[in-house]
Amino acid sequence: MNVIIILIGISIVLAVLFLTAFVLAIKSGQFDDNHSPSIRILLDEKQNKNTSN
Amino acid sequence: MSLEVFKYDNRIVRNFAFATMLWAIVGMLAGVVVAFLMAFPQLLESIGLHTEFTSFGRLRPVHTNAIIFAFVGNGIFTGVYYSLQRLCKARMFSDKLSYIHFWGWQSIIVLAAVTLMMGYTTSKEYAELEWPIDILITIIWVVFGWNMFGTIIKRRESHMYVAIWFYIGTFVTVAVLHLVNSFELPISFMKSYSWYAGVQDALVQWWYGHNAVAFFLTTPYLGIMYYFIPKAANRPVYSYRLSIIHFWALIFIYIWAGPHHLLYTALPDWAQSLGVVFSVMLIAPSWGGMINGLLTLRGAWDKVKTSPVLKFMVVAVTCYGMATFEGPMLSLKNVNAIAHYTDWIVAHVHVGGLGWNGFLTFGMLYWLIPVLFRTELHSKKLANTHFWLGTLGILLYAIPMYWAGFTQGEMWKEFTATGQLKYGFLETVTNLVPFYILRGIGGLFYLSGAIVMVYNLIKTAKQGSFEEETEAQALALKDQEEHGAKHWHSWFEKRPTQMLIGSLVVVLIGGLVEMVPTFLVEENVPTIASVKPYSPLQLEGRDLYIKEGCNSCHSQMIRPFRSEVLRYDPQDLEYSKAGEFVYDHPFLWGSKRTGPDLAREGVTNPDAKWHYVHMLDPRSTSEGSIMPAYPWLLEKQLDTSKTRDKITAMRTLGVPYPEGFEEIALDSLQREAQGIANELKKSQINTYADREIIALIAYLKKLGTDIKVKDK
Fold first, then answer.
1. Which of B445, B539, B681, B693 has the fewest CB neighbours in a 10 Å radius?
2. Does B152 touch chain A (CB under 8 A)?
C-alpha cells in the first residue's frame, strides 16, 4: 500500500499549497472586507437590462 | 491616475456556450441510448445497428465522458470565461490561448468519442482515454490555466471574488489528479498499462474518480453559482463570509474522501475509515454552500416565480443539497453495504448530474445568451416547458433508480429459512427491467427539454445582435494601491517569456515530485504465493475484457459478506484478498454489478462451451439476461502482434515473468489457445484457435483459480 503514502503526500502538498494561498490571501487583505465584494460584482459598467428574465 | 479602457472578449464565451449546447444533446442522447439498452439489450440489433462500436460497454464511457468533459466541461469554460473577465476587470490574458483552448478541447472530445467507440480504453472510469489523448488534455489544461492566471495577474480589481478562488482550486487540483491517475506505460500508440496494480491502482483511480466529481463537477460549478445566481437575481450573495469559509473548508476536506468508493473491498480498513470520516465531514461545507446559494434569493422569491433562469438555479442548488446529503450517508459503511454496486449509486450521481450540473448550466445559458446577444429570451414559455420537462425527467429518472437499487441490494442479501440465497442473480436483474424502462423515459423527458432549450436559445441569438466585445473601464491596479506597494508578481507581469518559463518549471517540479516516489515504490501488498501472472493468452483475453468494457457491468470484488461469498464462491466461501490482484495493471474491480461478479468465474463456471454460446447469444444460456451479444468476438482474429511487447511491459511494471519469456510467449499463447479450441470441439463447437473469443475464455477460466491451488 505504498501508493497511499504517495497519495497522502500529494494531498498534503496540495493542502499546504492551499493553506499558503489562504494565509497569503489573508495577509494581503483579500478577506478584510466581507461585504462590498458581493455587491460590487452586481455593478457592471453597462447595467444589464435583463437581470432576470 | 489613469482610467483604462478595455474590452471583454465575448466571442470565446459564445463559442463555449454553443459547444455546451451541442455536447449536451450528444451526451444526453448517448445516455438515453445506453439507458434503453439496459431494458432492451437487443434494441440496436432489431434496427441493425448492433456492431462492436455501438455495444453497451463502449457506449457507456462515451456517455459519461460526453456529459462530464464535453457538456459540463464546456459549461465550466463558458462560465469562467464570462465571469473571470468581469471579476478581474480585464480582458482574457491572450485571445490566442483562448482560441487554442477552445479548439483543443473540442478536438479532445471528438477524439475521445471516436477512440472509445473503437475500443481504445484504459478501463479507468472517467479516465478511459488512452495516453496520447491524456497528454493532449494536459497541454490544453495548461493552456487554460496559463490564460486564467494571466488574466488574474493583470486584473484591475485587487479583491479576488470568491468565484475566482473556486476556479483556481479547480485548475490546480484537476491538473494534479489527471497527472497522477494517468500514469501509464505505453505499449503502442493507443494502448497502455496502468503503472499501478490491483489495490494500489484502485485507490489511485478512486482518489481521482471522487475528486473528478469534486473538482470538475462541483468546485467550478460553485464558482458559477456564486457569480450567476447573484447576477440573475440582482442581489448579493447571502453571506460573502460564508462563501469564503465554504471554499476553503470544501477543498481541504474533499481530497481525502476518495476511499469511500472502495468500502468493504480489499483496500486496508484504516484507509476505508479515513475516507468515511472525511466524507461525513463534507456535509458541513457542502450544506453551507447550498444554504448560501438558496438564501441569496431571500426576499426575491417573487422573482423565482417568473424567471425561468432562477427556477433552474433553485432546483440546481436544491439538487446539490440533496446529493451532498446523500453522499455522506452513502459513505457510511452500513448504508454502502446495500447501495454499492446497485442503481442507487446511479440515481445518486444523476441527481448531481441532471439536477446540479444540468440545471445550473441551463440557468446560466438562459441568462447569458440574451445578454451576449443584447436581446430578450425568445420564448419564456418554452423555457418554462423545458423546466418542467427537465424536472419531471429528473424525478422519473431518480425515483425508479432508487427503488431499483434498494430492491436489488436487499434481494442480493436475502436468505431462505434454511440459509440458502433466496434469489439467483439473474432474478434480481430481470426484476429491474420495468425500472430501467421508466428511467429511460425520464432520460427522454430530460433530453427533449434540452432540445427545446437549444431551439429557444438559437432563436434568441438570431433575433438579437451579438456583441463581440463589451467595453469597460477601470483604474489600473497599480494606481489603486497606496504608496505604489509592489506585488511579487509585478516582475512576471512585464515579462511574458519569463512567466512561461516559470510556469513550465513549476509544472516540471510538480511532475518530478510525483514521479520520483512512484519509481521508488516497492510493493508491500501481502502476496499470495500461488497467485501467478497471466499467461500470454489470458493477458490478451484480459485486454479484450477491457476493450469491450466488461467492467462497466461486472465487478471482480467479492465483499466479505455471507451473501456474497455464498453467491460467488460457494466452494470455499472466500472473499477477495488484496494479494489476488498484484499483477492486475489496471485493476478491474468495477463499480456496478449489472451482471454478476466474476472474481471467481474460473472456479464456478470454467465451461468453455458455456462462455462461447453465452457471448454469441447471452439469452440462450441465461433466460432474460440483459447482456449484449458479442458475435464479433467469435469471428475476429486475435491480434498477437503486441503480445511480446505486452509481456516485456508487464515485466517493467514488476510482474515476474521469467527472463526471455517474451520470446516464447507466442508459442505459449498458441498452445493454450489450441487447448481451448480442442475443449470446444469436444462439445461440438468447431472454431479456430486464433479467434478473440478463445483469449477471452482463457481469461475467464483463469479468474479466481490461483487461490484454489490447494484443492487440486
1. B681
2. no
* Within-domain flag for B494: no
pLDDT in tens, B31-81: 999 999 999 999 998 898 899 999 999 999 999 999 999 999 999 999 999
Q: Are B320 and B293 in contact (CB under 8 A)?
A: yes
CB B195 within 8 A of CB B515: no
Q: Is B190 on the interface with A (CB under 8 A)?
A: no
DSSP B471: E
Q: Do B542 and B450 have their domain in common?
A: no
**Packing angle, helices B95-118 and B56-65, rounded to 10:** 170
Q: Is B698 on the interface with A (CB under 8 A)?
A: no
Give me the DSSP letters along B475-533.
Answer: E-HHHHSGGGPPPTTHHHHT-HHHHHHHHHHHHHHHHHHHHHHHHT----SPP-TT--P
Model pLDDT, residue B504: 55
Would residue B107 count as lying in a domain? yes
Query: How much is the average pLDDT of B231-244?
Result: 93
Q: What is the pLDDT of residue A22?
A: 85
| Percentage with pLDDT > 70 across chain B | 92
CATH number at residue B635: 1.10.760.10
Q: Which of residues 449-488 of B touch A (CB under 8 A)?
A: 470-473
pLDDT in tens, B306-328: 999 999 999 999 999 999 999 99
A48 assigned to some structural domain: no
Please report the number of interchain residue pairs, chain A to chain B, with beta-carbon separation below 8 angstroms: 121
Residue A35 lies in a domain: yes
Q: Is residue B516 part of a domain?
A: no
| pLDDT at position B483 | 45
Burial category of B60 from C-beta neighbours within 10 Å (exposed 0-12, middle 13-18, buried 19 and up): buried
pLDDT recorded at residue B300: 86
**B266 has a chain A CB within 8 A of its CB:** no
Q: How many Å lie between the alpha carbon of A52 and the closest alpha carbon of chain B?
A: 5
Domain ranges, residue B264:
8-486
Residue at A45 is within a domain:
no
Residues 6+ apart with CB under 8 A from A36: none
Number of independent structural domains in chain B: 2
Please indicate, yes or no, whether residues B37 and B172 belong to a single structural domain of this protein.
Answer: yes
Nearest to B450 by CA among B395, B506, B404, B394: B394
User: The domain that contains B354 carries what CATH number?
Assistant: 1.20.210.10
Q: Which pairs from B298-304 meet CB under 8 Å and 24+ separation?
A: B298/B235, B298/B238, B299/B235, B300/B233, B300/B235, B303/A52, B303/B233
pLDDT at position B694 is: 96
pLDDT at B1: 63
Separation CA B521–CA B319 (nearest Å): 41
Same domain, B50 and B183: yes
Query: Who's near B119: CB < 8 A, 6+ residues apart?
Result: B52, B53, B58, B547, B548
Q: Do A52 and B310 touch (CB under 8 A)?
A: yes
CA separation, residue B499 to residues B84, B90, B505, B513 (Å): 20, 18, 10, 21
* Residue labelled with grid coordinates 476493450: B547
Residue of chain A with shortest Cα separation from B233? A52
Residue B332 lies inside a defined structural domain of this protein:
yes
Which pLDDT score is estimated for A40?
Answer: 86
B176-195 residue pLDDT tens = 889 888 888 999 999 999 98
| Closest-CA residue to B563 (of B358, B340, B396, B409) | B409
Range of the domain at A11: 2-40
Minimal CA–CA distance to B108: which of B147, B68, B148? B68
pLDDT beyond 80 at B506: no
* Section B578-594 average pLDDT: 93
Give contacts of A19 with chain B, Cβ < 8 Å.
252
